[in-house]
Amino acid sequence: MTTIVVRSPLAGWCLPLEEVPDAVFAQKMAGEGVAIEPTDGIVHAPCDGEVLFPKEARHALTVRTAGGQDVLIHVGIDTVKLDGAGFQRLVAAGQRVRAGEPVLQFDLDLVARKAASAATPVLVTAGGRIVRAVTGRIVAVGDVLFEIEADIAAAPTAPSTPQGPEERRHFGVPFEHGLHARPASVIAGALKPYEAEVFVHAKGRSANARSTTAMMSLGVRCGDRIEVVATGTHALHALDALDSLFTQPTPPAAAGMPKPATSERRSAVIACRGIAVGPAVQWTQAEIAVPEAGRGVTEEREALKLAIGRVREHLKSLAAEASGEQLAVLEAHVELVDDPELARHAADLVARGQSAGHAWRQATRATVALLSTLEDPRMRERTADLRDLENQVLRVLVGKGPSSSRELPLGAIVIADELLPSQLAAMDRERLAGIVMARGGATSHVAIIAASQGIPALVAAGRAVLDVPEGTIVILDAEEGRLHADPKPEQRAQVERSLAQRAVEKTADLARAGEPGATKDGTHIAVYANLGSLDDAKSAVTHGAEGCGLLRTEFLFLDRREAPDEDEQLHAYQSIADALGDRPLTIRTLDIGGDKPIAYLPMPHEDNPALGLRGLRTSLWRPELLHTQLRAILRVKPASQVRILLPMVTDASEIRLVRSFVDEHCRALGLDSAPALGIMIETPASAILADQLVNHADFLSIGTNDLSQYTLAMDRGHPELASQLDALHPSVLRLIALAADAGRSAGKEVAVCGGLGSDVTAIPILVGLGVDEVSAVPAAIPRIKRVLRERTLAECEALAREALLQSTAADVRALTGAKR
Asked: Is 137 in the same domain as 226?
């Protein structure tokens, strides 16, 4: 055996292939290796050898060692779509190079903006296996990445003639960018089970179909015709396997994502419900130009320090006047702008001669590229915050104010690729009617701020919305998740009449919001509020909430560097309890993991975080946070006002264990009795076992968001499935009915605190299923109380029975005359 050392061709963060946002690379279909999030744009030879370039492509290269080992470097993900823009070869194809010699130059800014990711896989595609790989740290050019163990006896020899029949077949290439790395890897992977030698013939050349780099070198484009020749025992089977790939009307999923729809009416993810009509405002902003070279290390370092300081003070001044979610976002941005790793990275680049602006841009975008590879959608959505800070600091460096603003027309529907929090904060709220973003997610900071301010908002709407002409009248329908451009006059008039009617109803509803929730025949249904801050609590009281059915305590734990201590938590909980007066306060223990990770509690890698350490599982995995939180909750006065709610419970033993913790802390604090301890029903398992779990819990609270996700097997953060994920699906309603029946039999309260509790269409059905309490966003409470007053309990029960017999969520909504 001989060992070949492969050194880092780039400076940056080295990560495992599993974290690359591309199935072919992450599943190692293209080969074993690692990936690098680059911080500069020069690729160096990772070892001695001959440089091979894919024909007509500039974004990838292979270095072939004397022993026949192929090391592939593929700059970025989906960079084939750049058609070579921003890439420059520094050596000729076939040239021999030494390790560390520059071989390729690329525009990192362009790749960061235009490609799916800047993550650069470094793979062994032929000739050996990897040992002693390095990941999870910063690497410099020339640092050892891994070693290749290669058998000298296995060095290339003349190919033997395969035994068996020969089969030939012609194909047209359907892949959008030809046989680039991903489809070539898919083809090679499809051939693995078969004993056959397979070659692709095109343009007078041939390549081994099991070699990704060989196929890339053919330069085959979309629409080209190729001949595939297979020889061996499984020759026919091999061609059949390829037939299923090449005869698709569109490329396989791993070979390229489908193009976005171009329709002006498109389903999107709803970030904040509502409807608005107004002129489209396309929010675009040219990238701020900054020089690459600095004017001296001392001068550039001081300029960067002053710019960061000015942005910090600007954020603090905005925070002093903000509240609720917007305050939390601004405080998180203050933390980010002071991040020591970000500052260190920028300082290192300044020390190498870069300007303050270029160094800051490179440092923030390297972190953006790293976050973009993570599986957790919430962490990926934090990239918008970093881009926001990048923009603010660069604006100061070029002599502008930190925030950009623009005068809006009255009733503006702002459309953007991705809106930044500072941009939203600078908009005139009196003129802004709605927001539509081509990208983004429902848990992005812009979406959270929009929801907190009641601004109808759609996210992940697709790039087609960016083609809506400026000034075009549009209908933003954030009830069905659609944007209608240039509607017909009668359609616009109908929506405007509906909005006027809603305004009248809203005024009337608010006037009666202080009345208790009750059906037409006087059956009391408690209408509580879901809270995430002190300002939410104040708003809940204004809107007639009878209490808090769910306090999401994550607002204290996310977007910070260390966990809040017991006293900080107590102060927050007590402030909210005081704001509610004598109304009940249900405090949910920390619900992290899955889509809500926290930086100071490193989570183990999970292939599917939604099925891993979630909610109470995380708290029991690291119980020190749970104990601190329980002590803070138990110190709230008066104790009779507080209830404790446990998330993601699936086993009675979990309830018993936490109850023992609560009893232990009650004794230590000298309390005579413990508060009520409830559990969330969020999985099919807990709903099916509700009749057992309720014997150990004091009340049940149904979380319909996760219950729908797990029942329907649809990721609730998936933009393409958002319109299908409906908690009124009969399968979800049947599980709610099981939990409600269990609570009724045990004489214990059953609440709904998930998104369905804010859906006025669902309220009569929930009541008919036996739900005693609904907990909703504060703004929905007055309307929910009106809906309750319009039906008797018997009518609600009849509607619920009929809903359980339906086949789809659409059928259920049709019963109520409502649409999704």
From this structure: no
